[in-house]
Inverse folding.
């Protein structure tokens, strides 16, 4: 892979940085990679080998490129970090991967950090807002650790087709939430968008491997301005630490000598994070819902797992009334009972159930616990745990799944009158 | 657990920083924990309890203390990080997460005006590699260029304290690190602590505590140091829950001091390859935890770690630079596997591959034989395979009766 023709342009208030990506070993078309920034720090964006290395290294590995030739220099710390990240990802998923030879035309040279200046990513959701709320509580404004500016990545998550109304609607809602939060917490906002997910458009790849490398690539555009940027962790230490594209093992590896990429796991359990946001009076501005599109004025659907989870957390800390961003009538035992199980979300619902019980909302607490039970059973099934799992594995291995099919046929037959 | 009464005692030669620790839930006697620094560092030492908080938190988590009450102020970033660290340890090994309280509240610390980087230095392969790579990466003017080599007494994989073995180990460490520091242009900072006395269990030290102990020392030096690097002892394929780990170590950072975990992407053999190109420091290499040696040597040359290092240097074509040069297949025969045989199988397998690639079949076979002996113990230790499953059943349902019977039978025959 070659990455060259670095460029930098300004169109009104929009500052763009770009480069051309050419595949050498994989039969894929070249891509004009573009980052566009608007807002407080936008004028500081600069193209660099570090930015493009982070954007391209993991897709290059995935597609078997033998080298990654870049213009300019690359930080040697980042080079080693990317090698470590590739090794970590390979160890997680058990896939043999060869890191392409990294060949910067200007060699490996560390940047020199400027005056300490901290920034954070701000999506408008629970984790990133809590980071900023906590930072305001803990650091005086003159401390180098005090977050001075926030960066909002526009158009992500991109579960929806980028050409769809759903995508546009979610992007606008997220920008609105981030802008309000940034204003409330005195962190001037910069918005950035990029087509870097077109280098490899698989949503699964992004979630499993690439997410924080992509974010780090955007952060390194600002390495002449910021010396540290915080990415909120949605992991909860000691509760869940599953392999994921943003992970405390991966993200610090995307630091360079000039910019520290801080994966912040200090927020504790999600329910405590929500409590801190409610205490700061910001619950009514939260955007947690990735469903779309919604009519004007609707920010969160109130029916998906993430909405119900956040409402549950607000209720558990006695702050549901402050969550004006949610349709409160949706938060009933019935909606929790019928919630489909998605992901390993039961870890969030156990503290919710405890909090609801403490608040005397027993019907809701019971519904939350029933959801936990259903989720655990589903995951046990998916992971083939317990004696039933052993039996299913044996059935698959020795009988080609005939027993399972027979049981399903039988239960189907019974269900029919 | 309460941590209180930060004190500083100064003599002509040393400064001792100490704090009192009192248990609240565990029936254990109160203790004073301390760290001693050379007297000339007096202006560079912290007045705060942050460093002591780290070691206390890990021990408190281990013993199920419900809270860690600091009588003073505490860095809020450190408090959040330590809470995440104890949560991580609880997730790995079980146990409770103590709540952290500070009687005079949380106050962000300010860094000294000039950035200064330090390396925790033992004179072994991992820290020498981190040093070599730092010199490859940075010019002396760069803030990430290591200036201090922090050498901590008691950072050894045998019981610490005043035993002849521990005293010998510390003497050898000082000699080895002084020499390497001189070659690399580092200021050595020798620190003695009694942090291991707070909980002297050896398994605890390995599995949970050893990086915490180093980070605590760095925080006591935080008016001088803004970044302190811990060299990785594990590479990615061998990562496991352990007292120094890339996820854990960085959680000992505060608002004025970063703790960095470095080198996880490189295997021990890759590290030796890099050091082979720096023969000047290989004469100061000290890898040996045996002792007392009773000679002027830095390494015994015969233990598993020494022989592993000799073999790695041989494979890298640099065996002449080490204190005990050269190694033959005969040296590896019946090699004692040391106190952690389950941890070394991978190293020897990597060596066997390397010798095979170098067309040294005899050495490859000898290293492979060590790997296979260590691998068998590893499998036993991890309870893998049908024998492991059988042992687990025996433990669960028969209280290991079958294992004891089989051992008795073997002894009789």
């Amino acid at each position: 892979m070659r990455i060259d023709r670095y460029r930098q342009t300004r169109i009104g208030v929009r500052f763009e940085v770009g480069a051309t990506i050419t595949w050498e070993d994989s039969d894929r078309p070249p891509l004009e990679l573009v980052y566009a920034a608007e807002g407080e720090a936008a004028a500081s964006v600069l193209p660099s080998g570090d930015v493009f290395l982070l954007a391209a290294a993991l897709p290059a590995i995935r597609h078997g490129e033998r080298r990654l030739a870049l213009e300019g220099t690359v930080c040697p710390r980042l080079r080693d970090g990317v090698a470590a990240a590739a090794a970590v990802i390979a160890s997680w998923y058990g896939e043999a991967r060869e890191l392409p030879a990294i060949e910067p035309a200007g060699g490996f040279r560390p940047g020199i950090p400027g005056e300490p200046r901290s920034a954070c990513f701000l999506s408008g959701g629970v984790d990133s807002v809590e980071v900023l709320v906590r930072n305001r509580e803990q650091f005086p404004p003159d401390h180098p650790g005090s977050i001075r500016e926030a960066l909002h990545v526009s158009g992500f998550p991109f579960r929806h087709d980028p050409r769809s109304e759903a995508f546009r609607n979610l992007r606008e809602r997220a920008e609105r939430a981030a802008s309000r939060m940034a204003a409330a917490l005195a962190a001037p906002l910069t918005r950035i968008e990029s087509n870097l997910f077109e280098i490899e458009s698989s949503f699964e790849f992004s979630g499993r491997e690439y997410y924080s490398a992509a974010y780090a690539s955007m952060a390194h555009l600002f390495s002449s301005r910021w010396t540290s940027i915080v990415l909120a962790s949605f992991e909860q230490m000691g509760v869940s630490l599953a392999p994921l594209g943003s992970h405390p093992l991966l993200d610090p590896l995307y630091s360079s000598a000039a910019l520290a990429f801080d994966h912040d796991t200090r927020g504790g359990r999600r329910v405590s994070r929500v409590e801190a946001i409610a205490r700061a009076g910001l619950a009514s501005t939260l955007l947690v819902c990735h469903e779309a599109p919604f009519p004007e004025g609707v920010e969160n659907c109130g029916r998906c797992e993430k909405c119900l989870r956040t409402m549950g957390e607000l209720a558990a800390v006695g702050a549901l009334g402050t969550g004006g961003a949610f349709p409160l009538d949706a938060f009933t035992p019935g909606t929790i009972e019928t919630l489909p199980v998605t992901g390993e979300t039961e870890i969030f619902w156990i503290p919710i159930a405890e909090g609801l019980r403490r608040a005397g909302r027993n019907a809701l607490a019971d519904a939350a616990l029933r959801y936990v039970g259903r989720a655990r059973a589903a995951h046990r099934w998916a992971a083939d745990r317990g004696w039933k799992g052993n039996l299913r594995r044996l059935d698959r291995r020795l009988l080609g799944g005939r027993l399972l099919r027979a049981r399903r046929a039988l239960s189907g037959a019974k269900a029919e009158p | 657990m309460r941590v209180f009464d930060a004190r500083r005692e100064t003599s002509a030669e040393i400064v001792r920083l100490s704090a009192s620790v009192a248990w609240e839930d565990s029936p254990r006697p109160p203790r004073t924990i301390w760290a001693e620094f050379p007297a000339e560092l007096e202006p560079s030492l912290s007045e705060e309890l942050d460093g002591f908080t780290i070691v206390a938190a890990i021990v408190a988590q281990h013993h199920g203390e419900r809270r860690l009450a600091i009588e003073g102020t505490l860095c809020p970033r450190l408090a959040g990080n330590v809470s995440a660290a104890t949560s991580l340890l609880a997730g790995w090994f079980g146990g409770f997460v103590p709540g952290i309280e500070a009687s005079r509240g949380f106050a962000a610390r300010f860094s000294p005006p000039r950035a200064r980087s330090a390396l925790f230095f033992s004179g072994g392969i991992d820290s020498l590699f981190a040093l070599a790579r730092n010199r490859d990466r940075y010019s002396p003017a760069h803030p990430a260029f290591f200036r201090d080599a922090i050498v901590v007494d008691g950072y050894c994989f045998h019981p610490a304290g005043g035993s002849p073995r521990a005293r010998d180990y510390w003497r050898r460490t000082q000699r080895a690190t002084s020499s390497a520091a001189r070659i690399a242009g580092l200021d050595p900072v020798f620190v003695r602590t009694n942090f291991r006395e707070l909980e002297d269990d050896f398994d605890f030290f390995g599995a949970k505590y050893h990086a915490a102990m180093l980070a605590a020392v760095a925080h006591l030096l935080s008016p001088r140091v803004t970044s302190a690097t811990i060299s990785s002892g594990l590479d990615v394929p061998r990562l496991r829950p352990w007292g120094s780990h890339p996820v854990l170590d960085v959680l000992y950072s505060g608002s004025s001091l970063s703790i960095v975990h470095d080198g996880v992407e490189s295997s021990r053999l890759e590290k030796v390859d890099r050091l082979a190109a720096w023969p000047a420091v290989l004469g100061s290499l000290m890898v040996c935890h045996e002792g007392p040696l009773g000679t002027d040597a830095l390494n015994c040359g015969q233990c598993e770690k020494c022989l592993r290092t000799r073999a790695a240097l041989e494979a890298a074509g640099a065996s002449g630079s080490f204190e005990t040069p050269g190694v033959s297949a005969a040296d590896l025969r019946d090699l004692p596997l040391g106190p952690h045989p389950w941890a070394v199988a991978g190293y020897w397998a990597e060596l066997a591959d390397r010798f095979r690639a170098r067309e040294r079949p005899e050495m490859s076979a000898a290293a492979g034989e060590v790997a296979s002996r260590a691998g068998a113990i590893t499998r036993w230790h991890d309870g893998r395979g049908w024998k492991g499953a059988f042992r687990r059943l025996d433990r669960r349902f028969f209280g290991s009766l079958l294992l004891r019977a089989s051992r008795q039978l073997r002894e009789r025959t």
In short: Residues 302 and 328 of chain A are 8 Å apart (CA to CA). The interface with chain B takes residues 76-77, 80-81, 83-84, 87-88, 90-91, 108, 110, 112-113, 116, 134, 137-140, 143-145, 236-239, 241, 248-249, 252, 257, 260, 265-268 of chain A (CB under 8 Å). The longest helix of chain A spans residues 362-382.
